[in-house]
Design goal:
Layout lengths: L2 E3 L8 H5 L5 E2 L14 E2 L9 H5 L5 E3 L10 H8 L5
Antiparallel strand pairs: 1-4, 2-3
The protein binds iron/sulfur cluster (SF4) (2 copies).
Length: 86
């Protein structure tokens, strides 16, 4: 299980700055960096360190099993962002 960014995200990039695994995107090297409305966590690389949770000013980051039911689909929203076969 990885951490997941859900609906409240305001794309202020605070989590990206503290992530030790460099698994939050888009980052400065991605074309979506300027226009992103939310960020995403790569479930393949998240080490579940919890740093992003306390860094987020709006409470948008959850450990996947703790996602509120109305945002459960954000687990797929995050994972799909990193798919290269779509
Ligand atoms: S839990 Fe840690 S490794 Fe996973 S996205 Fe958050 S800061 Fe990065
Ligand atoms: S810190 Fe929170 S609001 Fe900011 S980009 Fe990360 S998840 Fe979104």
């Amino acid at each position: 299980m990885a951490y997941v960014i859900a609906a409240p995200c305001v794309a202020d990039y605070s989590c990206l700055e503290v992530c030790p695994a460099d698994c939050i995107r888009p980052g400065p090297d991605d074309p979506e960096f300027e226009t992103a409305e939310q960020l995403h966590i790569d479930p393949a690389n998240c080490i579940e360190c919890d740093s992003c949770v306390s860094a987020c000013p709006v409470g948008a980051v959850y450990d996947a099993p703790e996602l509120p039911p109305q945002w459960s689909h954000y687990e797929s929203v995050n994972a799909d962002w990193f798919r290269t076969d779509a």
